[in-house]
Amino acid sequence: MLEVAGFFALAAVVAGSAAVTKEAQARARLSALSSVATEDAVPIAPETMVQPAEASENAAAAEREVVIDAVEPIDDPLNVPTVEQLAVPVADTEPKFPLDTRWFNARPVRPARTIWMTVTAYSPDARSCGDSADGITSSIHNVYTNAMKLVAADSRVLPLGSMISVPGYDNTQVVPVLDRGGAIKGHRLDLLFPTHAAAQKWGVKHIPVTVWEYADGRPRGDFRKIRDSKN
User: Fold this and answer.
1) Phi, psi values for residue 175, rounded to 5°
2) In angstroms, rounded to a whole number, what is the distance separating the alpha carbons of residues 161 and 169?
3) What are the pLDDT digits (tens) for 187-228?
4) Type and span of the H or E element at 35
5) Residues near 222 by Cβ (< 8 Å), separated by ≥ 6?
6) Is the pTM of this model over 0.70?
7) Using CA atoms, how far apart are residues 167 and 173, in angstroms rounded to an integer?
8) Is 52 exposed, middle or buried, given 0-12, 13-18 or 19+ CB atoms closer than 10 A?
9) Residue-range domains of the chain with CATH
């Protein structure tokens, strides 16, 4: 019995020694790690430490900076013009002449004066022109010039090339004075119609005639250059 009790006592001593040894070794390792961590660590100054409130403000400021950066314009590598650059000033879009401007011979015209005249009519055939019925007017224009809408007048009152409008003739459009006649003297006009019957239908009228002038500031030009509708 003594031998058994002695054995157990010896075993208890050995186990206790082992436990003490392991604990001592563990403490030694922890001490070593602690010294290493202490040597490598960089001390933080109290003034550089960020408090929770400051951290929130910094985060909000960072968000604002990101939003501002997102809306700032960037350079366009393609140089695409902006809407403002493409916009045309209102003054540049206004027409040079009013929309109701009338035109003749591809030029703008305006009324210059009004003359009361006795207006008759004629046709290009022999019943009106006699031996001169060759289809050529005194201005050397063909009678088909301006679609046969032209006038004979006294050149002392309305020189060849004058522009007039006669109420009831060619819808009161501007027509040229391109002919003269032996009986057309003073304040008289003779309107060309394609047929003798149409000329007779007009009869004789005393009406106001509007005289027109070019409105583009350029010279009147040569009446011989008025376009012939047949060419």
Assistant:
1) -130, 155
2) 18
3) 999 999 999 999 999 999 999 999 999 999 888 877 777 765
4) helix 2-40
5) 161
6) no
7) 9
8) exposed
9) 2-71 (no CATH), 102-225 (2.40.40.10)
